[in-house]
Amino acid sequence: MNSKDRVPASIDPDDIGYNDTPNEHFSTVLEQRISRRSLLRGGAASAATVVLGSMGLSACGSDNIVSPTVPDPVIPPPPAEKLLGFTAVAKSLADVVTVPVGYTASVLYALGDPLTASATAFKNDGTDADFENRAGDHHDGMEFFGLSADGKPSASAVERGILAVNHEATTNQQLSSFFIHANGGTNTLPRPAAEVDRETALHGLSMVEVRKTGGKWEYVKDSAFNRRVTCLTECEISGPARGNALLVTKYSKDATKTRGTLNNCGTGKTPWGSFVSGEENWSGYFVRGAADNAARGNDKSVASLNRYGRSQGAASRHAWETGGADDKYARWNNSKLGASADGSDDYRNEMNGMGYIVEADPYNKAKAVRKRTALGRYAHESAAFGKVVAGQPLAVYMGDDSRNEYIFKFVSSAVWSAADANPADMLATGDKYLDSGKLYVAKFAADGSGSWIELSISNPAIAAYAGYKFADQADVLINARLAGDAVGATKMDRPEWCSVNPANGEVYFSLTNNSNRNVNPTGSSALAPDSANPRAYTDMKGTASQNGNPNGHILRVKEALAGSTALSFTWDVYLFGAESGADAGKVNLSSLTSDQDFSSPDGLAFSPSTGICWIQTDDGAYTDVTNCMMLAGLPGQVGDGKKVTLSYPTTGGGTLAVDTYVGKAATADTLKRFLVGPVDCELTGICETPDGKALFVNIQHPGEGTSQANLADPSKYTSQWPASAGYGAGKRPRSATIVITKNDGGRIGS
Ligand code: FEO
Ligand code: CA
Ligand code: CA
Ligand code: CA
User: Fewest CB within a 10 Å sphere: which of 171, 369, 511, 558?
Assistant: First the structure.
């Protein structure tokens, strides 16, 4: 096994660049980079191993009661609610969830929790099995689907519903998911089948019923709605790639099915009420033989595999392919092993079955998940629907999260009919809107404008692309990264989630960070800063230099008048992540204060109730000072700020001037830190009840920095959350969903 190419779990698999096309820069060597989070996690984190028992979920800060206003006899009194009226939560390294005074955060649903009446309580000591009937690991994106009192789908229910949860990955440093095996599991080959079976079952999706009983939210262990979809559950291929030659496998010779959804990250909710989920870093789970290029006759599949991160000899994240002779293990080997011409006797095409937005009916577990291939294949995050207008096509906005990847928009062929909301057959409605349409990629210009370029086989730049010979439109969609290369799309600083501002339809994109931005780019896919990704600087973490755009930014797009079908837009940067003390002229361009400063935005979603823009971080750059966090923003609009020109000295003695557009500076009334999580976690998953009074949030991978060698000694865990908050057995840290409520019964964020 070529360990050089294995991505250890201590490496953030997001932080890998595979885009070495020279559309806007020189980039040569495909390189896997160890994230700052992994390299620089150190003493500060371990020093924060504090057991706080029932204080694990704490409130802090001073009194946040809004001062009463004397009612004016003529003008009606102001509403009691003032959004962002809470006192900002301070940065923290404590192993707790901290929310503002006046709020309560409670653990609701954690890794291993049983989902059937017969599943046993989770012991959390490495002896648990039956993970197909338990909550998966690494809770990520999440959506709420209401249920009426009599258990029917309801868009207005506020006390009962189904949470649809992504289970992105599992905590490992070498091969093994060590917190779920008694002795930490096996890091030599072959992997025992029993370990592999547990680990595959931890990935995928869960649907879990939650309800408010006696004023307290709980999940319902024996609900008939509870469901698991794992990375081995059969899924339907839907849309233009269904039946395409590139999807023929031993499992599905007619290219209509595949097994599982994998590394599900961001989510979305369709206008008709179903759940969508993005498959992100799936490629790292597959292995390719050391001589696979030659085995394939160096055909065009080699370019595709390389572009999606699997050069020959690449080793897999968990070596699941070594679990045994059964086909469920063999499918993880993406090498050409068979003699067939079409791939019907092996899994050489298996990776083409991953990398999609998938749609599930959260209320009907009998319906297989559908892979919506029309939206393109890449490292998907969330899928955000643009403002819905009757009689107009739907727009779906998406990002591809790897360094230097692209932003996309799908526009449906079908125009929206209000009669399609909450249909009896959600996936048939999904077929109507998501299986036929046009896929576009974004190109950002230095004057604050931008354009959507259609990824069509009829575009000469694609049809005649020297880097890859596209056979048909399905091939363009399956290889959307290569199609983006062909049309010269703008390489971004790792697009994570996107969300649409319900107030004005503008689309917000988290660009989490990019270690490759460099004023003097040389080699290894370095990129010069450009207008939409304008910063390249050094931030210190202790004595370590973090270069590029270590803190990330949030970009927003305003479509031209045509709305969902517009081919042009304007843009600016809503916020630049930065330390509050950083240079205001070059780094802290949004003038963040200590109540607002953040790094590496990732989860991002607007509240349909309050309009608050929730921002969550998945950071390694500022974690010497604070754990990851969640902020509440009340943004303005594209163009409410100013143009700024950043000047960089170049090695040649010249100056690189980069124009960018900075949104209006945040104030204490428009941006505030709302939550800080436990040690080594990222904050993710944002959804709420329709009244805005219960906010569900996910704490992913607390304690992931714990050494596997320290498994026997809980005092050496970097986190013991949520056990430290009084939830569940054992002390091994667990990813979990929390629910946040306001003690006075008000809306979250007021
Ligand atoms: Fe799974 Fe890009 O975060
Ligand atoms: Ca720093
Ligand atoms: Ca993410
Ligand atoms: Ca991330």
Answer: 558
